[in-house]
Specification:
Elements (H helix, E strand, L loop, with lengths): L8 E2 L2 E2 L1 E7 L3 H16 L4 E7 L1 H10 L4 E5 L9 E5 L15
Parallel strand pairs: 3-4, 3-5
Antiparallel strand pairs: 1-2, 5-6
Length: 101
């Protein structure tokens, strides 16, 4: 743990996770993403929130360009409506966008 930043490190590299979401659902997804970011910060994990339009989010999802992602579903069989998926592969990350408030 880096005492000056409060972020965990390994070999001098800070632990930063990329959380992606569809910006089309920012009214519901962004508050959820902010809560996740806040909670992970409490244990020394930095989270960058990256919002993009639905088809770009889906393409990035298929290519594994995320560490965590929020998926918004409108279908009852996919309850709960917002799911967080950890990512097992590390694809090339897109350039992070600043979180919108």
């Amino acid at each position: 743990m880096n005492e000056s930043t409060g972020i965990r490190e390994k070999d001098g590299e800070p632990l930063n996770l990329l959380l992606t979401l569809e910006s089309d659902y920012s009214a519901t997804s962004m508050p959820t993403a902010e809560v996740i970011k806040s909670q992970l910060a409490e244990v020394g994990i930095d989270v960058t929130i990256y919002g993009t339009e639905q088809m770009q989010w889906y393409a990035d999802y298929l290519e594994g360009k995320f560490d965590l992602t929020l998926w918004h579903s409108q279908f009852a069989f996919c309850f709960p409506p917002l799911l967080v998926y950890p990512h097992g592969q590390h694809g090339e990350r897109p350039r992070p966008l600043p979180a919108r408030h």
